[in-house]
Amino acid sequence: MRRRAAGERVNDAEVDWPHIAEEIESMGRAEQEQLISRLSVLLAHLLKWRFQPDRRGNSWRLTILE
What we know:
Blueprint: H1 2-5, H2 17-51, H3 58-65
């Protein structure tokens, strides 16, 4: 892909386009799932911080700061 983007002639038979597309889509899904997971933890810790002040811990604070 880099060679082709640089204008170099590339034999399409050498490139596994369906596999490349699948890898890119998979990376996008994994990043989206990670974002949802991290946002869920952040929201939970923010709610706990707000509504359970007597149980505030370093873990919650570090998650919120991060």
